[in-house]
Design goal:
Elements: E1 3-5, E2 45-50, E3 53-56, E4 59-62, H1 64-80, E5 84-88, H2 98-105, E6 112-116, H3 122-135, E7 140-145, H4 150-162, E8 167-172, H5 179-188, H6 192-207
Parallel strand pairs: 1-6, 2-5, 2-7, 5-6, 7-8
Antiparallel strand pairs: 3-4
């Protein structure tokens, strides 16, 4: 399936005016088709999947947790008919990126698949996918993540997307937490504000 590979570049297009929807952050087994209660067209939607990987026999591979996120995004895409699905995540040492591996694992409906292969942390996932959505006139972004990653995901995506008029709905996928994953999240929380400042600075630089 064709896909678009994107690296960070200058922002293009105009920010769209986000509008409040009758949609809430929640898990999505019973998610209905989106309804625009204000009339007119259904909002232009994108789905974003931040990656997660680990080393396996000297290869860097997306984790089973990450594959579950891709599967959940496939189910969500069937319901929402998004304009695009964006996979975001890096790879150390030049191996295939998390984003590329998620793209290759996609078995969902035919839709534009966008690969953002440079983000190393959640703040960069948000900052480096934002211009891609603005280019496509997206008004509402669904971000798929694990439950223990919810707090940071919501923090970064809401903070960065709201300034450019894109509403965010974070969807969690049932994944059993591991001690390592929980420790990682706890260690990352004190860094969130500094990472947000850097992400904002990166976006401001791209807009100049």
């Amino acid at each position: 399936m064709d896909a678009t590979v994107v690296t960070p570049s200058a922002l293009h297009g105009e920010a769209v005016n986000g509008r409040l929807r009758n949609l809430q952050d929640d898990s999505f087994p019973n998610l209905p088709k989106p309804v625009n209660v204000y009339g007119g067209d259904v909002p232009r939607i994108a789905i974003i999947v931040p990656g997660h990987g680990s080393w396996d026999d000297n290869d860097y591979r997306i984790s089973m947790r990450c594959r579950r996120l891709v599967g959940a995004a496939e189910a969500l895409a069937e319901r929402l008919t998004p304009r695009a699905v964006v996979f975001t995540g890096w790879s150390p040492l030049g191996a295939a990126s998390e984003a590329e591996q998620m793209r290759d694992a996609w078995r969902g409906p035919k839709v534009e698949l966008i690969v953002e292969p440079t983000a190393t942390v959640t703040a960069e996932n948000a900052a480096r996918t934002l211009p891609l959505l603005l280019d496509r006139g997206v008004e509402l972004a669904y971000v798929v993540c694990a439950p223990f990653h919810y707090a940071r995901t919501r923090y970064f995506f809401h903070k960065l997307y709201a300034t450019r008029g894109i509403d965010v709905n974070v969807r969690t996928v049932p994944v059993a937490p591991t001690v390592r994953a929980l420790a990682w999240e706890l260690a990352a929380l004190p860094l969130a504000r500094a990472q947000l400042r850097r992400a904002r600075a990166e976006l401001d630089h791209e807009r100049e």
